[in-house]
Write a structure and sequence with these properties.
The protein has 13 helices and ten strands. By secondary structure, it is an alpha/beta fold. The strands form two sheets. The protein has a six-stranded parallel β-sheet, with helices on both faces. Strands 1-2-3-4 form a four-stranded parallel β-sheet, sandwiched between helices. Helix 9 links the parallel strand 9 and strand 10. Helix 6 crosses helix 10. The radius of gyration is 22 Å and the shape is globular.
């Protein structure tokens, strides 16, 4: 199936779904501008662009994504961004933009604090201290930094959880103290985190990480783990500024900060963590979004859009 055929098939599926609905005042909630290719012919009661990442900066992003985002920003009644940096990049491109950084299911990750969870089989034999990462392993990870840290602290164990995508698995550094365990389910994560001494976020500093607001930051903290990150703007603000997360730009500083964070982690630090996390549950985020949607009136239909489908050869 080629590109136009795939778009036509998706459009047919969406049309069938819409026809099955008992009413006609639906909401279009876009996570990617690419979905306009098969949905722009519909007229929702409310159009929302949930701009979680700067997808056009990711490796392999379709060239037409930039043009489609321009169209979506013109169609959208309200825009949510997945972090403060992304908000600052989009706030002048739409009159109704609101930042919603990652929230937290604190109860789920609090399970890791009890240390009573069964140790996963593929982690049980790994000695301590353990420093861990979980998430997609792609061009956003500085794999060279990970290798250098493993060399600097051969007595530390680095547990790396997540699927490898868009990069060659053969490019991952291999060391006796580096453990690439593959992807795990969301439900499994607390059991792994409960056996770690610190969480690490060794993100590369490049275009694909310029606007990220890592969900794992509050998840590590909810698990009670001290955290060290490379200087990602939405980690520095607020977590670094509040001294909840350590920031390091190179391998030597990273391991030094990790030592300090592990030594300092305790009740006073954890109390400040919990005070901050108490303000950012997913329920609170949804309530705020719901209020904004309720107060956003539907603008008149836009009739002067160019034929973007033809212009970008969808």
């Amino acid at each position: 199936m080629n590109g136009p055929q795939a778009i036509e098939a998706q459009r047919d599926l969406v049309d069938d779904l819409v026809e099955s609905l008992p009413h006609r005042q639906w909401v279009h909630w876009y996570y990617t501008p690419m979905a306009l290719s098969f949905s722009r012919h519909l007229s929702p009661g409310l159009c929302i662009y949930d701009n979680m990442d700067e997808l056009s900066a990711f490796r392999g992003a379709p060239p037409r994504m930039v043009a489609l985002e321009r169209e979506l920003l013109r169609r959208a009644d309200i825009v949510f961004t997945g972090g403060q940096s992304l908000f600052e990049a989009k706030k002048d491109r739409h009159p109704n933009v609101h930042a919603f950084p990652s929230s937290i299911d604190a109860g789920h990750f609090h399970q890791a604090r009890g240390k009573a969870l069964d140790e996963p089989e593929d982690q049980a034999a790994i000695p301590h201290p353990r420093l861990g990462f979980f998430g997609v392993i792609d061009e956003r990870m500085d794999v060279d930094l990970v290798g250098r840290m493993a060399d600097l602290r051969p007595d530390w164990q680095f547990v790396m959880i997540g699927p490898v995508v868009k990069i060659d698995p053969a490019a991952l550094p291999q060391r006796p103290n580096l453990h690439w365990l593959g992807g795990k389910s969301y439900q499994e994560l607390p059991a792994y985190l409960s056996g770690w001494d610190a969480g690490i976020m060794p993100f590369a500093i490049n275009e694909s990480t310029r606007f990220i607001s890592p969900t794992k930051t509050p998840e590590f903290l909810a698990a009670g783990l001290p955290v060290v990150s490379t200087p990602i703007r939405d980690v520095i603000r607020p977590y670094g500024d509040l001294e909840l997360v350590e920031i390091a730009a190179d391998a030597e500083t990273f391991v030094q900060k990790a030592e300090e964070a592990i030594a300092r982690a305790g009740e006073p630090w954890l109390a400040r963590v919990d005070e901050h996390l108490a303000t950012m549950s997913w329920d609170m985020t949804w309530q705020s979004m719901d209020q904004l949607m309720a107060s956003t009136s539907r603008r008149p239909a836009i009739t002067d859009l160019p034929d973007v489908a033809e212009a970008i050869h969808v």
